[in-house]
Amino acid sequence: MADSLRDLRNALVNKSPHSIICSLVSRLAERADALLGRIHPFGFIVVRLGSPAPDETLRLHMWPTGARTRQNPDWPIHSHPWHITSHILCGSQTAKLFSVREEPKGEFMLFTVNYEDDSSILAATGKRVSCSLTSTETYNRGVTYELEVDRYHDVDVGPSTFAATAVLTKQRGGASPLVVGEVERGSRFVFRREECSQELLIELIKRLQLELGHPSEIQRT
Length: 221
Hints:
The protein is α+β, with helices and mostly antiparallel strands. It has helices spanning 2-13, 18-29, 198-212; strands at 37-39, 45-50, 56-63, 78-79, 82-90, 92-102, 108-116, 119-140, 144-147, 153-156, 163-171, 178-182, 188-192. Strands 4, 6, 7, 8, 10, 12 and 13 form a seven-stranded antiparallel sheet that branches. Strands 1-2-3-11-5-9 form a six-stranded antiparallel sheet, with helices on one face.
């Protein structure tokens, strides 16, 4: 297991060919019934594969087709204090980058994100900001891209698209993620990160294995 995590980590960092990354992900995902999936506030399923190093985490992100459960209020523009390397295993996603600046009379409010048990807690910072779109880019199957620390962004996958990414995060500081929210909507919001059912998780991983060209029986522990 540790060797597989290290191999996938190195493949992502080195931007190895798509076929190699797919093979490594397929190997790690075989024991689906030993994995835990949670519903992210932005609607996708997060599966933590493991930590190849103390400050690094490997994850599998999957976007089921159809309606997805998202946090309310749904504020997708955010930043986080870790560097991301992401490889598109299947489907596509559109990444938007934003310029966010503190302004006393800004249209938006910054919220911190903290974690308590299985919940995400948004709390208003009192800092007003302006927010403007700076770029939009769509990434397709086989592409590896990086997202720098503290970069405000929003990633979108259309409801008719099944998509999955292999993600490496590397912590670069102790700060909290930040979300760009509305000024007069409230000061504190709690979103419970519910577990994905084992049935749905196995269904999604089976579909992913087919997309990767590695159809196989899910191993049972």
